[in-house]
Structure formats: C-alpha cells, structure tokens
Amino acid sequence: MSTTSSSPPTRILVLVCSTRPGALGPAIGTWLTQALTSRATQLRAELVTVRLSDLALPFLDEEEHPSSGIYQHEHTRQWSAMVSAADGFIVVTPEYNYGMPATLKNALDYLGSEWAWKPVGFVSYGNTSAGTRAVQHAKQVATTLRLVPLGATVAMRITDATEHGKVIPDPARDTAAIGVLDELIRVAHALRPIREAARAGATPGPLPGSYARRLLPQDAPEVTVLQRCCWVDEALANNTLTVPALHESPDQVRAWLTEWHTTGLWRDGRLLALVRARRIGTDWHIGRLGVAPDLRRQGLARWLLHIAERATAPECSRIMLSTGSRSHRNITFYESAGYRPLRSTENDETITLVKSAADPQCATSAQGGTGTSDLAAGRNDAQAVQGAEQVGATALADTPQGSGQ
After folding, report:
1. In sequence order, what are the beta bridge partners of 10?
2. DSSP assignments along 210-224, one per residue
C-alpha cells in the first residue's frame, strides 16, 4: 500500500510587513524561511513569503465593507485570493511607537472572512521591547477578525540579533522559530473543520454543526475508517466477510473516489456519513450509503439518500441500489423510500432495488437541506462496470444494522 499522501500541503504565508526603504524586515524574513525550510518539508507545509511592499496596497479604498466580500479593485481581489488560499500566517513585524506598522493594520483591514479561523504567529523585532508591544497591538485586531494568535513567538532585539543588516546565526533562535511553525501547523489542522464548513460548496447538514461537501481522493483515509465501522453489521447480517467495503485499502478507496461523485457529512473534523452516485447508461446508481454506528436512527441515511436521488441525471429513467439479501431492516428502509426489489438469479447474496426517477420523492427536500448542486455538477457518463460488487450500490439504513456490498 502506498504511503504517499494526496492531501495538499498546509499553505503558510510569511508576511513581511515593513515597507520602509532599507528596513530589516526582508532580511529577517529570509532568515525565517531558511530556518524553517527543513521542518516545513517534514510537516508538509508550504512557506510563501509575501512582502507588503510588493503588494503596494493603498490605504483602504473599497467602497463596500470588507465583510461583504464585494471588491471593486484588482489589488483587493488579488490580496483576497492570496489570503483565502492560506491555512495560516507568520507575521514578521517591527514595532513603531508602541504599535504595529500602519501597513500591517491596513492589510488586515482590507479583508474579512478570508482571515477567519486561521492561526497567526508573530516574529517581531525592535529595540527596548524587541517588538513585543507591536505583537500585542496586532493581536487585538487579529482576534476581531477571528484569526487565532499563537502562544509561541520569536522576539528579536535589533542590537543583539542583527549585524550589518543581516541576522546573526543563533541556534536557539532557530529552534524558537521552529516551535512557532510546529504550533502553527497543529492549530491550522485543528481549525480546518471550522474553515471548511464556511467555504463555498459546503452545505449545512441535519445535525447541529454538521455540513456536507463532496469527498475528494484526499479524504480516502477517513472514508476507509468509516466504511470499516459501518459495514461490520452488514457482514454479520449476511453471514459473510466478502463485503468490499470491509477490505478496501485507502488506495482502493482513493481510486473510486475519483470515479464516483461522493458526498460526505462532517462535523468537527469527523466524517459521519457518506453516499456515492453516478450515471451508468440510463440508470442512476446510488451506493455506499453509510452512517457511523453511534449516529444511526437520526435520519442521516434518509437525508443523504434524498441528496443522491435529487441529483439524478436527466437522462436516467430509474434509480438503482443494492444491499445484502438478508439485510431485512435495510430492505424495509428502501421500500419505505419507494424502492422495489428487482430480483436476479445471478447473485443470491445481494438484492437490487429500483424505483422510477420520475418518483415525486426524488424531487422533495431532504429535511429542508439543499446541497445537491455540487453532486449534480459531478454527473458524468461512466464505463459499464464489471460485477455487482463494482456497481456497489451499498446502503446503511437508519437502523442499528448497516448494509452494503
């Protein structure tokens, strides 16, 4: 099994704030990235240095409030895109008169939601206080923007830390900088579920704090764990261990996530439930409908089933799914949703159920949820699959027992 992760690296912007000609900021930024490069590679972090002097942001000149996200100027849109793509920030700032430089305050004020729920660490420099008063000033603004300041910092006295415009080598300082990066990455990962729930494409789910989004190949580890939790009951009910969902490796899951459009329900970084769907010929196949064992009987399976049904491609005349032939509770669940058995003599271990794509239930709201636009956008023609296991319309009903092939 491959151990290579397909998840994107954690993107960290190193913001060099001083724009004064001859400022120490660029030299300190260069030292910082050099000190962190090796550790960043280990942590799969991407360091991107951004000098505010290169951005050349004028004093805030947008007519609409930053919270609106409506930007008229190209410099604002570019700045918004850079901050939106980041998972966290390290601010390299001097101290001017007991506070942060106006350039940093201005850059922060330009945007709103782009900053939210991302960690920010500080590397400060100055004379008497080594820039720490600038950091305290900046933290007041940062928390208002829902940035999350770190406890770890690096504070540098100019006379002790620099010489001839360069940073004096100091292993202890390098270690402190690495500590900032380590904490930044941990907090960035911890806050990811909150950031993700607020992003475009995420739909509020039926449980408080939950949201649904399309599952990507990088979600294969979470999908693998959820499947092995859900499909044990299916195996017990049908007296067989030959249930694909119990044996698939993360690489195998990653492969089918690229072929099926799969929706996952998340809360606080945990994958709670999932369903996959795609068109094969004139049939709309729904599969791998699974709900975590401790969350069954709360309507989650029915909610996800509605999402998958409502995304049925216009070319499809019927919707198909399968479950174990002895999964009586699940069969009852599907029959209550309008499905009828389509018996086959080719495989007595599974039962296929179908219903017309014109069934009015397919157009009804899933307990008030929407969330079908992304699934509908993922409709595509699929190659005919070989075997009922690959068709894989698996399901876990809102009962204590799961199902699925």
Report:
1. 45
2. -EEEE--GGGHHHHH
| Global confidence as pTM | 0.74
Q: How confident is the model at residue 201 (pLDDT cuts 50, 70, 90)?
A: confident
Structure tokens that stand for 234 in this block: 């299916």
Structure tokens at 8: 């994107």
The whole-number pLDDT of residue 390 equals 30
* 52, 46 Cβ separation under 8 angstroms: no
Closest-CA residue to 114 (of 162, 73, 81, 143): 81
Question: How many Cα neighbours within 13 Å face the side chain of 201?
Answer: 14
CA angle 352-228-307, nearest 5°?
50
- Are the CB atoms for 266 and 272 separated by under 8 Å? yes
d(CA 396, CA 405): 10
Please enumerate in sequence order all residues whose Cβ is within 8 A of that of 28, keeping only pairs 6 or more positions apart, or say none. 16, 92, 123, 125, 156, 162, 167
3-state secondary structure at position 99: strand
Residue 281 has phi, psi (to 5 degrees) of 65, -125
DSSP for residue 260: S
Which own/partner pairs from 330-335 qualify as long-range (CB within 8 Å, at least 24 positions apart)?
Answer: 330/395, 330/396, 330/397, 330/399, 330/401, 330/402, 330/403, 332/397, 333/301, 333/302, 333/395, 333/397, 333/398, 333/399, 334/395, 334/397
- pLDDT tens-place string over residues 247-300: 899 999 999 999 999 999 999 889 999 999 999 999 999 999 999 999 999 999
Cα–chain center distance at 367? 24
Q: What count of Cα atoms within 13 Å lies in the side-chain half-sphere of residue 206? A: 22
Closest listed residue to residue 212, CA positions, set 196, 225, 224: 196
CB of 384 within 8 A of CB of 259?
no
Half-sphere CA count of 316, side-chain side, radius 13 A: 28
261, 292, 296, 254: which is closest to 275 by C-alpha?
261
Given CA atoms 58, 61, 62, 65 in this order, what sign does their dihedral have? positive
Whole-number Å distance between alpha carbons of 295 and 308: 19
Task: State how far the alpha carbon of 199 is from the alpha carbons of 127, 195, 196, 309, in Å.
Answer: 41, 7, 5, 24
CB under 8 Å, gap of 24 or more: what pairs does 4-10 form? 5/44, 5/218, 6/217, 6/218, 6/220, 6/254, 7/44, 7/218, 8/218, 9/44, 9/45, 9/46, 10/43, 10/44, 10/45, 10/46, 10/87, 10/88, 10/185, 10/188, 10/189
